[in-house]
Every structure is written in structure tokens, then in C-alpha cells.
Amino acid sequence: MSMWTVPAGYTAYLTHLNIATGTTNANQYIVVRLVAREPSGVFRTQLKQSIGSGGVADFVIEYPLPFPEKTDIEVRASSSGSNNLVSSDFSIIYIKNSSVPGNNYSP
Q: Is residue 103 part of a domain?
């Protein structure tokens, strides 16, 4: 599982997600989900992908996914078998919200 919480006063834009799997077992697969939960909300699936054993999924998000402040972002994986390795990483750009003092950004 990979987890991150968007800092207060910022909006996060997810631009890239990379997932890699590894196993010594043939014919197994991993189901990976990117989920997000806004404050006082529930986790909602943003992206779902199945990956074969020893596979890689690289998502370059052309139109970045926005997440408001204090949103929890997680990458979760479940496997069809045991002893499977999963790694993930994602790239985020932060934009300071206009309600924050000292913000010079005007959309």
C-alpha cells in the first residue's frame, strides 16, 4: 500500500502513477486500485488495473487528477495468490489554494 495526505491549504494534482509486481509463481495477477477519500468522506476508486505476474503499469495522466486539501490518497493491491511483491509510486504537483494568505496564484 502507498499512502499520502494532501497538506492543508493546497490542491494536489496527480500526474503520474507507476506500479510494478514481482512473483515467482506463474499465472498469477495483481489487481491495483488508486483510491481517494476527501475529509469526512469514503474511499472512492479513481483508477483500477489488473497486472500479470512480473508486470509493470505506468500511467502518465495527461489531464491531472485534482485532490482537495486533506484528501487521503492510497494505492492498494490484492493478489490472486501468495508471495507476490508490489511496489508503487506517484507524482503530485501542489497548487496553493487562493484562500491561503500570501498566495500569488490567480486562475
A: no
